[in-house]
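User: These chains co-purify. Model them together.
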Amino acid sequence: MRFLPATALPRWLERLRGDGATVWAPVDEDGVVVLRPWEGQPIASRYVNPLNSLKDVLLPRTETILEFEGRPTDLAVREPAPPQSQVVFGTRPCDAAAMELNDRVFLEGTFVDEGFRRRRETTTVLTVACTVAGPHCFCRAVGGSPTAPRGSDLVLHPVENGYLPEAPTSRGEKALRAASDLVEDVEHPDPREAGRTVAMPLAERIALDGLAARLRDHFEHPCWDAISRRCHSCGLCTFVCPTCYCFAVFDSLRVTRGRRQRGWDSCQFKDFLLMAGGHNPRPTRKHRVRQRFLHKLCYFPEAYGEYQCVGCGRCVAGCPVGLHLPAVVDELGEVLG
Amino acid sequence: MNPYLPHLATIDEIIPETASQDVKTFRVVFADAAVRASFSYEPGQFAELSLLGVGEAPISITSSPTQRGYLEFAVKRAGVVTTALHWSRPGDHLGIRGPYGNHFPYREMEGKNIVFIGGGIGLAPLRSLINYVLDPSNRSRYAAVSIIYGARSPGDLVFKWELDAWQRRQDTELHVTVDRGDEGWTGRVGFVPQVLMDVAPSPANTVTVTCGPPIMIKYVLENLEKLGFAPDQIVTTLEMRMKCGIGKCGRCNIGSRYVCQDGPVFTYEQLRQMPAEY
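Assistant: Joint model of the two components:
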């Protein structure tokens, strides 16, 4: 088995950056660990999950989808420049799995989202497996694991003084080749096994079995009034969620040149579905809160056969009123049995 | 290919429809001859109309596939994009992406009577199918065709030039009504759902296709049930806020269905199994 010493990490990332890629890594900013474009600053090692998810890298907050130029009677439209290659170090298995859920939306079906595909194919995801779970983590309750390779190009299993790399994809293998002189051979039992024994108390509490069917049968259940009453429609849960992908599209124009961009949007906002004529199919908080949880627990599974949640815990940590997936599943379980 | 890149098209003609000009029909021609030749669509589909620098809006294609060489969109001035579109002049460029969505079940409707029930600008999507069915190359494949169409006032009726043409046809029954007449109006006065009860079409071997404001749809559905129509004999097409039109932006879902991909055309039978969030 291969072993990458922790001390070799900056040298390796420096080489990947030297190849022209933007390297992202978790860095400590005033006590908060955030994924940032890395330029040699100290890489954080003690964190459960960065504040921002892999979504920041693969589905940027805003991005240009086309550019145009000309006058009303003489227009030209063109594609934006192709994305630069990127390497993300230090993302967690839950975030990597989330990107595979997003792949299903953007790459499957009649239409392929070309912008997403191009960025996805030029991004290498170097995941660091988890040896501990935070108080907000519940990946195991939604089919994940602290050491699962899903969505990663390379999984680095932390051991004493370094990492045991596992490369599920050729992109990951290629990234590791840049460290071939830094890697040593060691004897070690299967590091994925370590994931089984990581304690994850929140995951134990979440009972999803049969819940989707009960939610469908009780769509109009009054519990949604009570649950949604405390929501502020701030949208935080949707923005921190690595699997929430809804976007808005907006144009900007400067005399004869402009661009069309997309940016994150949230189904929790009152005007998300407001139509020009004034009709709003989801006019109340109850409609919108129910939409979010049913999308994750019913609609997405109906379309793709899996929950649209990876248990990263960001909504648990962030929601100012505790209206996060584990809490709502708890409440629904109590009411719907 | 980037699905968000629109084809450029030129506005060939702008036809004011209503007296207040809040509805105009835009006849557009693709700038690129290859696109002109390859763009094909089916009645009931929509396109994303793009005003570069302003935005996009999903608009049903109101022309019929039997009309070659151009597309028509009837657009009510309602929001940012449609208002800017109304400022356009012939010769201006706009962008078109599509066609998107499913279509009216026009093959399954062959051999059947068709009752079209439209209200206001809701006639726009129906018109694509009406002209498809009435086209000489298709008419014999369908049984009786009747059209019930209403608007708030005579000035709010759209496609008046075409209503006259439909009226003159021997093989089509047209009932035009307005909520309130004016001094020049000699036609029928009454709400569409009431006219439907007066016309009282038989449900035997019949399909109805309806589109209009939500309040009209509500009572039309009730009355169709009273007349004995089963939910799977009632076809409608929905309006919904959209951004991408291709099932990616997460906006237009009703339950697990996306109006842009699984719709906009649904039977009442399908709608009854979906959450009432439309």
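Chain B has two domains: 7-100, 113-237.
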